[in-house]
Structures are given as C-alpha cells and as structure tokens.
Amino acid sequence: MNILGIETSCDETAVAVVEDAKNVVSSIIASQAAEHSIYGGVVPEIASRRHIENITQLVRKCIESANLTLNNIDGIAVTFGPGLVGALLVGINFAKGLSFALKKPLIAVNHLKAHIAANYVTDKSLTPPFLGLIISGGHCNIVRVKNYCEFELIGETVDDSIGEAYDKVGRALGIAYPAGAIIDSMAKLGDENAYIFPKPKVEGSMYNFSFSGLKTAVLNVINSEKMQNKVVDIKNIAASFQKTACDIVCEKIFLAAKRLGEKKIVACGGVCANSRIRSELKKYSELNNIRLYLPNLNLCTDNAVMVAAQGYFEFKNGNFEKNMSLNAQSNVKIG
C-alpha cells in the first residue's frame, strides 16, 4: 500500500511516498531555515507563503521520482496538528483537493505520533508497546505507545521545549537560528563542568519537563558576565547548558521507564539529531538494560516519511476522514 505523506506544520514543506509504513519510495523536503534565520525564528506568514509556493511542485517531483502516478497512491496522509495554523492549512487544503479529485482516502495525522513512526522506518522490527520520548523545537513529551494508534500521555513540558531552550540560549550567545546543531558542535570544544546550571522540577509531576528555568539561569550568567566586562566563554556555556539539558531528558525518561516497567524506549524529534543526547540515551539504556531505538538522522527533523508511515497505520485502523471537514489544530495533544 502506497501512502502519500504531506507535512507543512512549521517551516519545512515535505512530501513522501512510503510503502506499507516501512519502505521509503520517495521523499522530498524544501527547508526554509535560511530564510527564517535572519529573524531569529520562524515567521508564520512567511512559512505559509513558502508552503503555497512549494507544495504543488514538490508533490509532482515526489511522484515522478517514485516512478508512480497519482493513481498508484492508495491514500493521502497529512499533518493536521500541532503546528502553525496557517502552515498546516496549506497542507490540509492541498491534501483535501487531491483526495477529492482522485477519490482516495484522506488520512489525518497527528504530528507527534508521526515523529514516533519515523522509527518504524528506521528499524522495521520495531513494534509497540513501548515508551516514547518526543523531543523537538516545539515539544517535549513522554508517551506510552500501546499500539500503532493508541497513545497515553505520561509527561510533557509545562513551558519551553528543549529545542526552544536551545534556540533562546543560542540567541543570547549570538548564534544564528536554528541554534541546536551549532551549540552541539561548540559544546564539544568547551568544559561542561564550567558552570552548574539548575535542573528545574515540576511540582506534582515527576514526569513533566520545565526548561524555562534552565534557559533563564543561562541567560543570567551571560548577562552577569557581560555586566562585569568579562569575556563570555561561549564554548563553556554551550557545553554546560547542553550537559544539563541532556541530563534532564535522560533522567526523566529512564525514571518513567523504571517506574512503569517499560523495557523499550523509542526516542524521536529534531533534538534526537543532537550528538550528546544520542550518546547519553545510549549510555543510560545500557546501564538500565533497556532497548533503545533512535531514528536515522534524516528522519529526526520534520519530514513527510513519518507522516506517511503513521498514515498507513491510521488507515489500517479505520481512522480516515469520512468527509472534507478536516481542519488545522494548533495545540492538539497526543493521547
């Protein structure tokens, strides 16, 4: 079964064809990161306009590179949320039109579930149940994945996501957006013990995350050193911040795994491309005798492969749209 996936939740216009949720037939992504970097973050109106400009030609190229025709597509999966409403609507409306014209099923896909589905493509032996960790620019969640379509939310960020904290710290250090990869590289050259940053806890929930306090602590150090006319050691701050952020994530997810009796952890999202988080997750999993699954690097950030993969499971479970009423949901949760 060939599923066409469409992803426009933020600043990547992505289209892919995936066969039976596991085999990538074709995948194309048009990134807007360079254009948004001059503003220090994603500008929603610009993102929406670029999606409009890109989506038709990307779908055409994706189908051509797959050596298929649109008639060979069995279903059309599209991200409906969470994300930027204007950006989401571009993908949704295009998918609706395609579905109506081709008389093919329209499948609504939760962006967070899709991130987890990237691992089914990376490791074809992976099956639920397991504990999922979603870490990205907009999200930080721990979920219990009961089957391919049923999820239970265990923990989430109450303020900033880990990716958002990276970008805000990066901005304070004068690093261009998106800052995650640059901070990751700089951290390798610094002393991670140069600064001791706090690991904020969330009252009443041992599994929820809070990165706002960590971000503020880093900003306070930067401002304090500037006020004292000291040279801000960017590498040491980057290393110390990254160590603390990664420790927070690893401690939370492995605490959850231990208390919930889970023996498989599936991590995903843009921050899973971070070299420190990948190495720390591997180290913790070996120490705790837990099987760890990580997506290929090209499937960490937003892509349509993961949308098509999750779309396959939703379709097989009977979860497809019966009419054309699908709308964007900016803050839809998982589970």
- DSSP helical segment count: 10
Q: What percent strand?
A: 15-25%
**N- to C-terminal distance:** 26 Å
What would you call the quaternary organization?
single chain
Mean pLDDT rating:
96
Strands, total number: 10
So, CATH architecture of the largest domain? 2-Layer Sandwich
Task: Tell me what you see in this structure.
The chain has 335 residues and is α/β, with parallel strands linked by helices. 43% of the residues lie in helices and 18% in strands. It contains 10 helices and 10 strands. The strands form 2 sheets. Strands 3-2-1-4-5 form a 5-stranded mixed beta sheet, sandwiched between helices. Strands 8-7-6-9-10 form a 5-stranded mixed beta sheet, with helices on both faces. The protein starts with a strand and ends in a 19-residue tail after the last helix. 51% of the residues are buried.
Map the helices and strands.
Elements (H helix, E strand, L loop, with lengths): L1 E6 L4 E8 L3 E9 L1 H5 L6 H22 L9 E7 L3 H18 L3 E5 H12 L7 E6 L4 E6 L5 E6 L5 H11 L7 H8 L24 H16 L6 H27 L3 E5 L6 H13 L3 E3 L11 H12 L19
Characteristics:
alpha/beta, Nucleotidyltransferase, domain 5, globular
Quick rundown:
The protein has helices at residues 33-37, 44-65, 85-102, 111-122, 162-172, 180-187, 212-227, 234-260, 275-287, 305-316, and strands spanning 2-7, 12-19, 23-31, 75-81, 106-110, 130-135, 140-145, 151-156, 264-268, 291-293. By secondary structure, it is of the alpha/beta class.
